[in-house]
Amino acid sequence: MTQQVWIILLIVVVYMAVLAGISVVVRRSSRTSEGFASGGRVFPAVLIGFLLMSEFIGTSATLGTAQQAFSTGISAAWNVVALAIGFVLFSLFVARKYKELGENTISGAMARIYGERVRTATSVVMTCALLIVAVAIYASGGAILATLLGIDHTWATIIVGVLASVYVVVGGWRSVVYTNLLHAIMKLAAVAVLAGIGLARVGGIDDLRAALPPASFSVDGVGWAQIFAWLIAGIGAIFATQYVVQAVTTVRDQGRAQRAGFYAALMLVPFGILAAFVGMASAVLYPDIDSIDALPALAVDIDPLLTGLVMCGLVGAILGSIAALIIGASTLMLKDFYRPYFNREGDDRKDVVFLRVATFVAGVLPIVLALLAKDVLAVTFLAKSLRAALAVLIVLMFYKPGYGSSRAAFWSIVAALVTTTGWFLAGDPFGVDNAYIAVATPLVIMTVVHLVNRRPVPAPPTSTEPTSTEAT
Questions:
Q1: Domain 3-378: assigned CATH number
Q2: Could you please report the per-residue DSSP string of 92-143?
Q3: What are phi and psi of 106, to 5 degrees?
Q4: Helix H or strand E segment including 149
Q5: Distances in Å between the alpha carbon of 157 and those of 19, 102, 326, 330?
Q6: Distance (Å, rounded) from C-alpha 231 to C-alpha 199?
Q7: Cα 400 from Cα 408, distance rounded (Å)
Q8: Which end of the chain lies in a sparser environment, N or C, as judged by fewer CB atoms within 10 Å?
Q9: pTM greater than 0.70
């Protein structure tokens, strides 16, 4: 390896050592199942805001936005801006209700109104959605490592997946909260550095505008149909993502839960715009590369010290998002499958062992699919669409609990999983994005059942008492 690569690796190793130190220091909090899954304490709203922002800008969002901007221009930033809008709406309409409910899993909250079958269905769909996002993160992380070290893409993806899984198993949720503060800062710094260098090499905004087609600077360059699809999927993902709920329930009160979402939105907007400029600059500087290499190509073509900084940001993008994803998935498996069927006596030591094993398995499982993933943004978008279907039921649960029925809610989830995935695999026929199918499916089913079979309106969920299937 060249001297440049050794310098970059040394910087990344130092960064990893700092992360390991944080994990070791807070490891004490992960010795119980509750500590592993929620950190064992309350956290400041601004810290949770950094966590939420960091979770949603993994390598798939970072590379994916640059990849899209390489082809379509600045409008690719809507992919991330949609998430910021989602956090604003989440803070205004849902965050306080989740905190008041006192339930740290979406499936547990849904069970309060729609029953146990819906709990199980929600847990399955949510786990699938989280693991699909992990597939996209590993694929993009492998692309970065392969470009940097000049190694086979398959081995690069495997290395990323295994290291990320081990990292999460060690520290638990509290480690994720603290390390994601560092990750968020590094990610913002990385895209800012790349955008600045890219624009400087092109000659500035004016020269960039002259070198690219006029549509590249259009707000709706990707088309309003795509932008609205990103908004639907992004907002739905915020409303119905397990680790978002897990995060906002760790603050002290409802007001702080709202502020955490506003902080996240405030940081996401500039990140999306900067990532888009990286892709646009690469389109001018490296017009013959594959679009997925838009960000890596620029990252390895700068001073090695700055490349090391960028790599730390990308490492943070991988680890920050993966940590929240697989802890969220393992928490669902613990509460909805392991405890009710295999640990009814509530032995916490068994819960901790299961959480660590499930976390590692959830981290390793997506590696195989990541080796086949090509369009990073499309894969991530499918996961958002699946969660958007759940978001419809969540809004009904809090604001219209008598709409439809428990059975309709269950079949809405099952049908949405089938129709959305099928529509995605079919290539979004007739130009209709799968996000629209994801939202329309539960709306249609719940509306038809509501009109055909009106039932007494149950009270909206407010109790903080545990449900009968949880250990007390």
A1: 1.20.1730.10
A2: HHTHHHHHHHT-SSHHHHHHHHH-HHHHHHHHHHHHHHHHHHHHHHHHHHHH
A3: -65, -40
A4: helix 116-149
A5: 21, 38, 17, 22
A6: 28
A7: 14
A8: C
A9: yes
